[in-house]
Specification:
Helix content is 26%, strand content 26%. It has 272 residues and is α/β, with parallel strands linked by helices. The protein has a domain at 125-270. The strands form 2 sheets. It has a 10-stranded mixed β-sheet with strand order 1-2-3-4-5-6-12-11-10-7, covered by helices on one side. Helix 2 packs across helix 4. The longest helix is centred in the middle third of the chain and has 13 residues, at 174-186. The termini are far apart.
Length: 272
């Protein structure tokens, strides 16, 4: 008859030989037992596995088919590109402000094909061609929260394949927004874009809409609900009023202005 032995009561030095006899899968399982077990496992200096191999075994032990979030920020202490390449299904990716441009670009290149939502706190691309290539990724949601947008152009988003684009951290002038609307109206590009949200400087309203759009106002006391074609951070958007426009190819869109102090929130919905 065996008696349970309180392994975690042993001193740290006595536990190290026990760890050395464990297989990698057993070590990973052990770290999940408790906070103390997790901290003790950090004493292992070398197991002989690469970062990507550790990730594979962790996902195997936990039966993890996908990751909810990857947050990349700061300077990597070692080469993690192989590890990133081993990830196959990620819901959200966050690129932080302190991530070097070269590493941020490489991470986005590797991970964009296996994720549906990306938030970037900096734009790591050196020119518009690089930025446009990134925008063509088939994302459900792209959130750009950066003040560095002055190096790029709002018209770059005419080619985006992201369903929803949210731009924050940078305020656009009314003339820039008007030019974007005019270019979209005349565009032949079959973009996947369904919703563009940004902030403008000052009071922008229907007087800023180009005449070529032939915008038709919708009653301000009536609500409409916009449903995205795929599951996003929010399943739908409900708004009042707005201005409807229609291109020659039959594609319809609605423009909504929401004043807020010295700024105006601008939402552009392209009906699927």
């Amino acid at each position: 008859m065996t008696t349970p032995f309180p392994l975690l009561r042993l001193p740290r030095l006595a536990l190290l030989p026990v760890f050395e006899q464990m297989e990698e899968r057993e070590i990973i399982t052990f770290t999940l037992l408790s906070k103390r077990a997790h901290n003790l496992s950090k004493n292992l200096q070398k197991v002989g596995l690469s970062v990507s191999e550790w990730i594979e075994r962790i996902q195997d032990v936990t039966n993890c088919k996908s990751l909810k979030r990857i947050h990349i920020n700061g300077v990597p202490g070692f080469d993690v590109c192989d590890a990133l390449s081993s990830l196959k299904n990620i819901r959200e990716i966050f690129i932080g402000l302190w991530c070097p441009n070269s590493f941020a670009k490489k991470a986005l290149e590797i991970l964009s094909p296996v994720t549906t939502e990306i938030t970037i706190w900096k734009i790591p691309f050196e020119n518009r061609d690089e930025f446009r290539t990134f925008l063509m990724s088939n994302l459900n949601f792209l959130n750009v929260d950066s003040h560095e947008f002055s190096r790029f152009d709002l018209d770059d988003f005419l080619v985006t394949n992201a369903l929803k684009v949210r731009l924050r951290g940078f305020e656009f002038f009314a003339r820039v927004v008007s030019q974007f609307l005019t270019n979209w109206f005349h565009s032949k590009c079959d973009s996947r874009l369904e919703h563009l949200s940004l902030v403008t400087i000052g009071d922008i309203n229907e007087t800023c809409l180009p005449e070529v759009l032939n915008a038709v106002p919708f009653a301000r006391d009536q609500e409409r609900t916009f449903f995205y074609s795929k599951q996003l951070d929010t399943p739908s958007k409900t708004f009042s009023g707005g201005y409807d426009i229609e291109r020659t190819d039959g594609k319809k869109a609605t423009i909504v202005f929401v004043p807020c102090h010295t700024l105006t929130f601008f939402d552009f919905y392209v009906w699927p």
